[in-house]
Amino acid sequence: MKEKANQEIAQNKAEALQSVKEEVADLTISLAGKIISQNLDSHAHKELIDQYIDQLGEA
Fold first, then answer.
1. What is the structure's pLDDT at 28?
2. Which of 7, 11, 18, 38 sits between 20 and 30 A of 54, alpha carbons compared?
């Protein structure tokens, strides 16, 4: 009986750890996506400014 309880505890612990790992992975992917999106947006913004400045220089 005690051994069965220990096995259940070990199983529950393993399931909880797996759940936490999956949640951390999901959060990491989400965060990475946001960072990439911000970097692309700021880069695109800089390119637009540079193009505008180039056009002003030509005028």
1. 87
2. 38
DSSP-assigned letter for residue 13: H
d(CA 5, CA 11): 10
3-class DSSP string for 6-35: HHHHHHHHHHHHHHHHHHHHHHHHHHHHHH
d(CA 40, CA 55): 22
Report pLDDT digits (tens) over 25-38. Answer: 988 898 888 878 77
DSSP state of 59: -
Angle, CA 8 vertex, CA 4 and CA 13 arms, to 5°? 150
Half-sphere exposure of 19 (CA within 13 A, CB side): 6
